[in-house]
Amino acid sequence: MSHISLVGxxxxxxxxxxxxxxxxxxxxxxxxxxRLVGEEILACIPKGAARFDVGKRCGEPSPSQSxxxxxxxxxxxxxxxxxxxxxxxxxxxxxxxxxxxxxxRHGIQAELVPGITAALGCAASAxxxxxxxxxxxxxxxxxxxxxxxxxxxxxxxxxxxxxxLVFYMGLERADRIRRGLLAAGALPDLPVALVVAxxxxxxxxxxxxxxxxxxxxxxxxxxxxxxxxxxxxVRLRSELDSLLGQAMERVA
Length: 252
Hints:
Layout: E1 3-8, H1 19-26, E2 30-33, H2 39-42, E3 50-53, H3 65-76, E4 81-86, H4 96-105, E5 111-113, H5 118-125, E6 138-143, H6 155-158, E7 163-168, H7 174-183, E8 191-196, E9 204-209, H8 213-218, E10 226-230, H9 237-251
Parallel strand pairs: 1-4, 1-5, 2-3, 2-4, 6-7
Antiparallel strand pairs: 7-10, 8-9, 8-10
Helix pairs in contact: 3-4
């Protein structure tokens, strides 16, 4: 019987896996994984399991999505317990929907196992509340690839007040994001945080403003992954981070 699980590996640490995700990984006979899956999580794969690294790396040869789809279909048909492991959540900018549809159209029903997406994990790790009463009542997750469309018409909706924005894969498109939001009426001093390698020991948080976003992003080029968060909630980070630190000292 064919069985394949599309599993969200979360933002990196093994402690941020769901219990279901961990159980699927530990029982896997075959694992197909992406570049952003952390080493801690890869260490949970059984020693005898076959591994396929299909991660996409900028500027380097990597499998196309159609090749990955074909591989998943072939592996699922072997009857082994196959896990497709994706960083974050498979259905948030992870192409999990595309892979599940491809399998379903060929008669194989995939199990979808959610994971903590980068926006949620990095916000908690960086002490930035994505929503906050009286400050932000809505949240939008955006792929930076959308900014490559010069005729993109959504800037007005993104620029509204009382709203938090999180851009995935937006570092190299930071100037386009800056120009689009400013032209739509966003304030130049809108707070921005760039979270580098969130939830990992390498985490770095760079705070800036919308009108200086391009310069801040340029200083981080070559680092990965980077998430761009913006909105008035970013102003809460300093106080929250300080108070959380004090609380931890009292507990210690």
